[in-house]
Fold RNA polymerase sigma factor (Sigma-70 family).
Amino acid sequence: MTQVHRTVETVWQMESARLIAGIARIVGDVGLAEELAQDALVAALEHWPRDGVPDNPGAWLMATAKHRAIDHLRRHQLHARKHEELGHTLELTADPHGNDPATAADDPVGDDLLRLIFTACHPVLSTEARVALTLRLLGGLTTEEIARAFLVPEPTVAQRIVRAKRTLSEARIPFELPRGGELAARLGSVLEVVYLIFNEGYAATSGQHWVRPALCEEALRLGRILAGLAPREPEVHGLLALMEIQASRLRARVGPDGEPVLLLDQDRTQWDRLLIRRGLAALERAEALGGALGPYTLQAAIAACHARAGSAADTDWPRIAALYDALAQLAPSPVVELNRAVALSMAFGPEAGLEIVDALAAAGTLRDYHLLPSVRGDLLARLGRLREAHAEFQRAAGLTRNARERTLLLQRAAACAVLPASEPGDPS
């Protein structure tokens, strides 16, 4: 791949979501907007190697895509008034940020990306389709990455995305921000999408990097906008608190060579204290709004326990275990149960966690989820059952698609391979 092609790929990763959102505002169809954005990408691959990379490549892509959008609408004989409105969009080529002065006055949020999320999260789609489509359009995730986030087959996700775009187009869903009761109805799905985008940045499911900070930053930006948009919604503040606190650890999550650093091994002086303060303040706002704590606020309270601990040894694991008990009651899932097992093992010993993990393994729901054997390997190692732990870490390494994580798991397996003459619990 040439340097120009690498530049095109990088710019696309950075700009695709904003590009699709900007075009969707013009054409009113997210599927068509994605196609037109892809057309602009193809044009860049044709022109930039010959003419050079423009000074503002994102603005070049936006201008190219908008010209194609206008051509498309004219071909479909849009009425004259719409032509006059669309003429203003041609002025965007002079704005490096892609802001549209013709529509700014009636845009209360000023964020096409947020509008795109709410459009993709319309109730006409299933919850799974809403999340998959928004991750694809705004998170820039591949179908494979989304599939791993949902623990479902890749063809299933691909089919959801295709059907979702077709459904939105056929239903003529307007590209707008909902208001009133409709806003509240769609908020839960939007929060789920934002958090999944954040999670992909916090612990990348595949690739050569353990973290993808740009995705975390995008999710945080959207979360902060949502908090301003729905200030009386506790779970909006709960999600924002959770993301702020977790994002505070990003620098400490990787070593000098990009290798993963697990929570208990992190240098807490590298944690971002400003983000922690912001997160704790958001958690206070969520709790002050009253009512039972929701899933995001409970998870934020768990994250706050880590943030308040000066060292790993100071962590209030019994409180974390109690919070996971509450979360498992409110939003039961195999992944929550796996996290609860870890908390119980830290609070009351590895045997307490292993009992839950073994039950999850027997159920088979997480058979392809690499963190199940990873957690089981850790618990077995703590019990001195190194041979079994070695096998579990090896299996986890075979399941993960993240190169950095695979290396870490293989290192943990190797550490268990130096076996003593006899091991506690070794059937041999």
Observations:
- Residues 368-428 form one domain.
- The chain has a mean pLDDT of 86.
